[in-house]
Amino acid sequence: MSYFDGIAPIAFEGPDSDNPLAFHHYDPDEVLLGKRMEEHLRFAVAYWHSFAWEGGDPFGGRTFDRPWFDGGMDAARTKADAAFDMFRILGVPYFCFHDADIRPDGATFAENSDNLKAIVDVFEQKMAQGGPKLLWGTANLFSHRRYMSGAATNPDPDVFAFGAATVKTCLDATHRLGGENYVLWGGREGYETLLNTDLKSELDHLARLLHLVVDYKHRIGFKGTILIEPKPQEPTKHQYDYDVATVYGFLKTYGLEGEVKLNLEQGHAILAGHSFEHEIALAQALGVFGSIDMNRNDYQSGWDTDQFPNNVPEVALAYYEILKGGGFATGGTNFDAKLRRQSLDPQDLIAAHVGGMDICARGFKAAAAMLEDGGLEAARVDRYAGWNGADAQHMLYDATLEDIESRVLNDGINPEPVSGRQEQLENWVNRFV
């Protein structure tokens, strides 16, 4: 019997439907800006939060009762059956996984690898039968106690070796399953105190792992994109992958900016003190935008609560920046989101994704309408129009500081401030959302 018995595939019923298990705004076949909505949004389900998380928190243990939680490879196969049932019910085109989400831990690296390969066999069969494609795979280099001081940045070279070998097996699995990206999430690549940390060595070692991954990608012919996911503050006090600017500076320093792009999460952007659209816009400007995790935090908690999106204006501004940059290439919209620990039923897991997909669809439609209207871009062009003049271009590309001073003196330049019209532009955005 399926874990999701009795739940039919989710259909688009439109905004007037009151069916909680129907799409009200996400119509995968609706064409916007010349493409189907499914092709724009490229939805993916996260295997870890949906099927591996047990509903615990720092003050209490498991609240979920899933039939695959206890056991070895048989339980992992049962989990895979449930996962692909849910993918089918939702009609998502993609999924994502960490190795530790899909296979049980073995006593050795060899056992881990064998278990991973066995589940990849299962995935391969299910995908061949019409299952979704793989948006990206990754390795869990943070949960096991061996990684308490990091993986690539660990002071113990044997931990670096174990982590690097694990990444190889996960990249092999991703390549075999036709994954379109591979993500490196440095969950514990940081430090708690400088008293016991050689910061420069740790950065060098992290860069070494990235170079090894890039070299291996090219050797095996993996055509997907290598992604890093920035994350500030947690779990370590000083994360080396804090935000877009920090990661780009790291990539530039070590000559990796042409090989690695970024997977950006809304919740992580907020923890870093930014808006999601800021992080997307900066990654686009630097040429390193890749993919997104669409989830939110509880703004009163100050923690990464990984909740499903429910704020259309926030989502719309994020997709506006994505569309302005040309949309997704190999990336997509992954729901790195989990149920609340009181949400116990199979229907809750389906409904959470249905709601998240609808919110994204509403936001995406608003973003597409804003882009087609052109009002925001026209206002931006007008604000910077002065830079198109001959004097401004000369100042920008050819003039010396002395030349600029002479022009200010000779032309009597004494500028008055010009309104940024922020409130008017906010009102303009609100017409669409």
From TrEMBL:
Keywords: Carbohydrate metabolism, Cytoplasm, Isomerase, Magnesium, Metal-binding, Xylose metabolism. Homotetramer. Its EC number is 5.3.1.5. It catalyses: alpha-D-xylose = alpha-D-xylulofuranose. GO terms for molecular function: magnesium ion binding; xylose isomerase activity. It comes from Pontivivens nitratireducens. It is found in: Cytoplasm. The active site is at 98, 101. This is Xylose isomerase. InterPro entries: Xyl_isomerase-like_sf, Xylose_isom_bac, Xylose_isomerase. Its cofactor is Mg(2+). Mg(2+) 1 binds at residues 229, 265, 293, 336. It comes from the Bacteria. Transmembrane segments: none annotated. Belongs to the xylose isomerase family. One of its GO terms (cellular component) is cytoplasm. Its main location: cytoplasm. Binds 2 magnesium ions per subunit. Mg(2+) 2 binds at residues 265, 268, 304, 306. GO terms for biological process: D-xylose metabolic process.
